[in-house]
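Quick entry, no commentary yet.
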Amino acid sequence: MSPRPRRLPRPHRDDILIAAAGLLGGLGFWAIGLHSQSGRLLPGVWVLLPLFVMSALELLRRTAPPLALSLATLTLVTDQFTRGNLATVLMFTDIMYAAVLYGTPAAARRIPRITVLLTIALPLGFYAWLRSPDTLLVGVGTGLIAFAPAATGLLVRHHREAADTALLQAEQTALLAEMDRTQAVLAERSRMARELHDMVANHLSAIAIHSTAALSIDDPKTSRDALAVIRENSVDGLAEMRRLIGLLRDSSGDQEPAAAPTLAGLDALIAHARTNGLDAHLTDERPTSWKLPTPVELAAYRIVQESLTNALKHAAPGEVTVALTREAAALTVCVRSPYGERPGPRAPGSGAGLIGMRERVALLGGEFAAGVRDDEKVWQVRAELPVPEGGSTL
């Protein structure tokens, strides 16, 4: 099958209106006998031929500007052999303007340069040929019908490109702002997830372990003790949940934010772990002169809390030790628990605890390690949290 011939795009509605207005205007000038020239080779109705051709080329001013300009130039030359019509010349200037405005970038650069050369060369050429000062008026006419519309089209094109560039930059700025907002929301959601996990996982793990013990051991005293621990952890967990929900709901800023946990609460945290059946001990004395930044204290507290929760769920029977070491520019947290087979009930783990601890340490620019030590008999969690100079006063 032979390919179909390529068709020109449909003319724009405004181009149709411009062509119709130019044609009607030219017919009006012809009807009243208004001509731009006299004494030409083709008198009478020949002046209408360039008029009709030029008005038809107006339909291509936007869809095919190079073709329209080339044919319009030939039509204007033909019009010079008739008595002339002002509408034909005006439509040519519009096609010249459109060729620069809607043409390719190369054409937009080339056409004004060519019109400048024509504006200068034509009058000089005619003057050299005829030796008459009147021939210099040819340059004025060429500048008005060629260079002026080309320069106007170039100026409008530059303004439009600048406006498009500004719009694109505004859209890119809005996109970057939306990306920043999305990342901020995701970061806040991750922070809330870590906080919720660290606050509630300890209580829920204890509830799961002791409820399993109460169901699996047929001993009234054991069941009563397990239920007491379950009730205590339920109340504490509910209080923590209410505190977090209150912080999330209160967006007015009228209330003071709840105090974040600090290292001063480690004794109570370890005592609570003992209540849940974990043999946990703090192996060092924390000097009261320690003054750490709030993010460091919160991260250290949550790391100890999550490590105790993991030990409650996974550690073998034995002592769990918590050690804090203060150096010049860092706080080191180390939690060690027995590693091996553990008899009795345990709570399932999701693996989010280690991820949360690692993220907390990474946000502070510290180092985190968790794994088996001492010939696979001890599970150790070690976090080194940098302390800025402003937070190292003694």
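second:
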Amino acid sequence: MTATSAGVPLPRSGTPERYFVVIGSDVARRVCGSLQAAGHLVRHFTHPTDEELRQALDREVAGVAILLDDDVESLRYALAVEHICPGVTLVVTVFDRTVAEQLVRVVPNCQVTSPAEVAAPVLLAACLQPDLLAITPTRAGHAGARWEADTVRVEPYRPPPALRYRARLGKIRGQLRPHDGSSRILLTGLAGLLAVLVADWIWSVVLRHRPPVEALFEAARTVSAVGPAPAHGSDGYLVFSSLAMLVTVVFTAVFTAGTVDRLLAPRSVGIVGPRALPRAGHVVVVGLGQVGLRLCTRLQALGVGVVAVERNPAAPNLRLARALGVPVVVADATDRFVLRELGLHRAQAMAAVASDDLDNIAVSVAALAVAPELRVVMRAGDHEAIAETRSLFRIGLVNDLGSLSAAYTTASLSGLRPRGVLAHGKRLLVERADGVFVPWPDTQRCDHPQERDADADGTVRAELGTSGPARAP
């Protein structure tokens, strides 16, 4: 399918202005800037009180955008807006899918969005096939969007055979190859016990000509430190069994120590199974926030091995990642030793998608130092260090998630009900419900001055004020 370009539906200067209310900080400032550039009147808050919200909605409102990082706050403001101004066009950022489904059920005129959901197709394509703009799931599988002759062509996508083979081989090689000390201790003890058992069984079958089942029974007695029956053993075998029992005591202690440590401490990486650490053809995702977790699940859906790295051992998504079968290493991804342990030089790509731009820069630099040929995908915003670092050396594929999310939200407020947003160079493209991609302006943040006042309870509140139409040049 080929999608053609069309004009931007946002009204430009010279058309009747509309009134919008925007709640939030970073992405909200971009949305506010886009609406101002289109000639609209915008009232922008960070965390308005109920009275401020009521006053802001005490007139004809074209739409309300609630762009907060806290799902509970977003839900509260959405219900308050619907109560004050029923039926208004409402765009709300909600990360949890269960909360999103319930909100849409209660408020049918609400359109729920998530920066993680908007950015995942773009990040997925950057990790697997950079010549694609996005890879999105469909009912028939997956679809890839490609820029071709000034248009966006959407076609069915399946990972190349070489990538699938490397990913499958990497998963197999990762079985029984633990990366942490307690798992190595556990496997060392288990291997020692099995070695003693097999050696005793072979001795009994080959040298003593015992029946295999009876030999296994006597070998088990040796491993359990019970010892063989004296009547059935020669002097040489009795000496061997004595030494084997003494060695077994050591291996049993080692195995028990490893088992206890794994049982008491929560582990996000398995020794065998889907949560075992892949060793080749995988993607390393640094940062287990909403964006990182969504990217991990999209990679798994394509059959690509993935490893998530999270610095905070109390991160809220750790438990969810374990439930989804995503292996997670709790460590500092700027440590080169950690990156080498993750098999970075054999990985398909690394995605630095933490919420802090500077952290992503540090991780990308460390990754390139370990594996100079590695494909690095970095989540970034408007931090000035991004442009400065990119001017010094090739840091990787930089994706501005703020611009993607702002374009999606602004398109939703304009009534498009978009499917997604793509980025081609500095150009943004919004996919409409009919599959047509339209170019979208990427504007700067709004210029509302921040006024911080202390409320009666001592908390700090920031209201960004009201801005009239800023006519586009």
